[in-house]
């Protein structure tokens, strides 16, 4: 850089000198000083702005996390409730697919939907009779017994079957009315998953895959000493 003239003593000095070595006067103009001041101010404001932005971002996510906490708690509670419900219904689903022995010649099968209407298979002479036992008390009051009457038409795996009913000691007993219906009803429940529509929007889902074991057990019990 070339030489410049000092504004104070008018001596020639190096152009990159900040002060005159003779009189000590500053070599920068007022414009240069103002530019330097504004540059320092802008640098300070720049750092201040960056810090402010970072603070706002942190505050935003902190407040969002707080506002989402009730939803998270509700979601966790629903998940725990679902786990509890699944755990409580798992044994029911398992039992619904198994015939349970009530006596050596009587077995019952629980549907997946309800524990108050069960299918009951019983050995009657040489034949196996299959009925539905409703212990809900909705149709038959405790201790009440009635004669046999028509219960209407139920749908068994998309096939219409006429049923009769009777109250026996407070339980409603349902059975197919005709011999053909009895054979069909037993065949469906004993060999494949079966859905029985008993009216008023009520359906019963049975799965009696182990019925051959039940049948053999009944026959064995019939020949007991």
Characterise this structure.
The chain has three helices and eleven strands; from the N terminus they run E-E-H-E-E-E-E-E-E-E-H-E-E-H. With 225 residues, it is α+β, with helices and mostly antiparallel strands. It has two domains: 27-92; 99-222, Immunoglobulin-like (Sandwich). A hairpin with a 2-residue loop joins strand 10 and strand 11 (202-206). 16% of the residues are buried.
Kindly report the spatial arrangement of strands forming the biggest sheet.
3-4-5-6-9-8-7-10-11
Number of strands: 11
Distance between the termini: 128 Å
- Report the β-strand fraction as a percent range: 25-35%
CATH class of the largest domain: Mainly Beta
CATH architecture of the largest domain: Sandwich
Number of individual domains: 2
CATH topology-level fold name of the largest domain? Immunoglobulin-like
Give start-end ranges of low-pLDDT stretches: 78-96
Helix content: 40-55%
The SSE order reads EEHEEEEEEEHEEH
Structural class: alpha+beta
Oligomer: single chain
């Amino acid at each position: 850089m070339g030489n410049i003239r000092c504004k104070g003593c008018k001596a020639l000095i190096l152009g990159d000198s900040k002060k005159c070595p003779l009189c000590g006067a500053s070599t920068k103009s007022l414009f240069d000083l103002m530019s330097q001041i504004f540059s320092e101010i802008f640098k300070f404001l720049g750092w201040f702005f960056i810090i402010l932005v970072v603070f706002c971002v942190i505050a935003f996510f902190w407040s969002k996390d707080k506002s989402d906490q009730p939803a998270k708690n509700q979601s966790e509670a629903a998940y725990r409730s679902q786990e509890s419900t699944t755990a409580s219904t798992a044994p029911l689903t398992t039992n619904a697919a198994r015939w349970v022995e009530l006596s050596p010649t009587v077995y019952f099968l629980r549907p997946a939907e309800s524990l108050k209407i069960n299918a009951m298979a019983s050995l009657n002479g040489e034949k196996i009779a299959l009925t539905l036992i409703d212990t809900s008390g909705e149709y038959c009051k405790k201790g009440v017994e009635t004669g046999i009457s028509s219960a209407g038409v139920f749908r068994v795996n998309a096939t219409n079957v006429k049923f009769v009913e009777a109250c026996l000691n407070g339980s409603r007993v349902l059975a197919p009315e005709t011999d053909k219906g009895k054979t069909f009803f037993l065949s469906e429940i004993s060999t494949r998953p079966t859905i029985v529509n008993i009216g008023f929007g009520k359906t019963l889902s049975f799965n009696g895959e182990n019925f051959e074991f039940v049948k053999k057990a009944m026959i064995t019990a019939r020949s007991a000493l």
